[in-house]
UniProtKB/TrEMBL annotation:
SUPFAM superfamilies: P-loop containing nucleoside triphosphate hydrolases. This is ABC-type quaternary amine transporter. GO terms for molecular function: ABC-type quaternary ammonium compound transporting activity; ATP binding; ATP hydrolysis activity. Keywords: ATP-binding, Nucleotide-binding, Transport. Gene3D superfamilies: P-loop containing nucleotide triphosphate hydrolases. Residues 3-234 form the ABC transporter domain. It is an enzyme of class 7 (translocase). PROSITE patterns: ABC_TRANSPORTER_1, ABC_TRANSPORTER_2. Pfam families: ABC_tran. It comes from Tindallia californiensis.
C-alpha cells in the first residue's frame, strides 16, 4: 500500500468540503474520484497534494505520516487542468524545470533526464519547441511528462482531459492508460465524466456531498451500485414498477422493445448515433417519468418517434442496488 487516508476532513462554511474520507491505495493503482460538481473531488486531491491541510484526519505515504508536510516535501506531483506550464520555455526546459526543482539535479543532468520523458510521451522532435506553439493535447503530454519525470510516487490529475475536444480526449485517455501501465506510477484522477472513470480506473471512488458513496472496481460500481445515487450517477438507470407494485431499477441497454399499438408506452425522443440509438419513452402523454432505452446497431433503426411499444424486460437484468 502506498497511500493511506484516514478520516480526512476539511470543511468550509455550511459544512461544504470533504468529510471522513478514508481510502487505501495500492502502489501502481489508477484511482478515479468521480462525482458531480461540488462533491469534494478537488478538495480531496488538494488534501493529498498538501495544498490544503485537513481539519482532522491523517495521510500516510509509504507508511510515513505526511498530513502537515508542504506540497514540495511530498513525493506527490499534480497535473493541473490548465497544465501550468511555462509558456516562454521549451518542451525540454519545462520538463527539466520539474526535475531540477524536485530532484535537485544540475541543469545539464536535468536536461538529459528530461529527454527520456519527452520520448516517453511521444514528443520526440519537439524538444526545442516553445509551449505556446503546441496544441492542447501536446501541452497535456508535456505536463504529464513533467510530473512523471520528478520521480513522484503519486500523480494527482485534476480533470486533465477536460480542456480538450472530444476526439482528442478519447486518444489521450488511451495514451494516459498506456503511460500508467508502462510507468506503474500510482495515479489519482479527478473527473466528473463517468466514461473516463470507468474506462481508466482500477477502482472508482464515487463521491456525494463530501463523502464517499462507494469504492469499487468499475464493473462492480456499474453492476452493483450501493445506492440509487450511485446507480443514477454512474450510467443511466430507469426506475420501473413490476406487476406486484414493487419498484426496481434497470439499465437502458437491458430493455428490448416490441411494437404494439395498444401499448401505453410511446417513443417521444430518438437520438440516432450510428452504432447505437437512444430512445426515450413516456407512459402517458405529458408524463414526466421517462424510460430510457439503448438499442445497438440496426435494432434501433426500425423505431420512430410516435411508435407505441411494449417493454421486454429480462427479469435477471434488474439492477441489484444495495445488494452487495
Ligand atoms: N476555498 C473554499 N472556500 C469555501 N468553500 C469551498 C472552498 N473550496 C471548496 N469549497 C466548497 O466545498 C465543496 C467541494 O468543492 P470541490 O471543489 O472539492 O468540489 P469538486 O467536486 O471538485 O467540484 P468541481 O467538479 O466543480 O471542481 C463545494 O461545495 C465548494 O463550494
Amino acid at each position: 500500500m502506498i497511500l493511506q487516508m484516514k478520516n480526512m476532513t476539511k470543511l468550509y462554511e455550511e459544512n461544504k468540503g470533504v468529510r471522513d474520507f478514508s481510502l487505501e491505495v495500492k502502489k501502481g493503482e489508477f484511482i478515479s474520484l468521480l462525482g458531480p460538481s461540488g462533491c469534494g473531488k478537488t478538495t480531496t486531491l488538494n488534501l493529498i497534494g498538501g495544498f490544503i491541510i485537513p481539519d482532522r484526519g491523517h495521510l500516510f505515504i509509504n507508511k510515513k505520516e505526511i498530513t502537515s508536510l508542504p506540497p514540495e516535501k511530498r513525493p506527490v506531483s499534480t497535473v493541473f487542468q490548465n497544465y501550468a506550464l511555462f509558456p516562454h520555455l521549451s518542451v525540454l526546459e519545462n520538463i527539466a524545470f520539474g526535475v531540477r526543482y524536485f530532484k535537485k539535479f544540475q541543469k545539464r543532468k536535468a536536461l538529459v533526464h528530461a529527454k527520456e520523458f519527452v520520448d516517453l510521451v511521444g514528443l520526440e522532435g519537439y524538444e526545442d519547441v516553445n509551449i505556446g506553439n503546441l496544441s492542447g493535447g501536446q501541452q497535456q503530454r508535456v505536463a504529464l511528462a513533467r510530473s512523471i519525470a520528478t520521480g513522484a510516487e503519486v500523480l494527482l490529475l485534476d480533470e486533465p482531459l477536460s480542456n480538450l475536444d472530444a476526439s482528442l480526449r478519447g486518444s489521450l485517455r488511451r495514451e494516459l492508460k498506456e503511460l500508467q501501465r508502462r510507468t506503474r506510477v500510482t495515479m489519482i484522477f479527478v473527473t466528473h465524466d463517468q466514461g473516463e472513470a470507468l474506462s481508466l480506473s482500477d477502482r472508482v471512488v464515487v463521491m456525494d456531498h463530501g463523502r464517499i458513496a462507494q469504492v469499487g472496481r468499475p464493473s462492480e460500481i456499474y453492476d452493483f451500485p450501493k445506492s440509487s445515487y450511485v446507480a443514477n450517477f454512474v450510467g443511466k438507470t430507469n426506475k420501473l414498477t413490476d406487476k406486484r407494485g414493487e419498484s426496481f431499477f434497470i439499465r437502458p441497454e437491458e430493455i428490448r422493445l416490441k411494437k404494439n399499438e395498444q401499448s401505453p408506452y410511446q417513443i417521444v425522443e430518438k437520438m440516432f448515433l450510428g452504432h447505437q440509438t437512444e430512445l426515450t419513452l413516456s407512459e402517458m402523454p405529458g408524463d414526466k417519468n421517462r424510460v430510457d432505452v439503448l438499442l445497438f446497431g440496426k435494432e434501433g433503426r426500425s423505431y420512430e418517434v410516435g411508435d407505441r411499444v411494449d417493454l421486454l424486460l429480462n427479469t435477471d437484468a434488474k439492477l441489484r442496488v444495495g445488494e452487495r
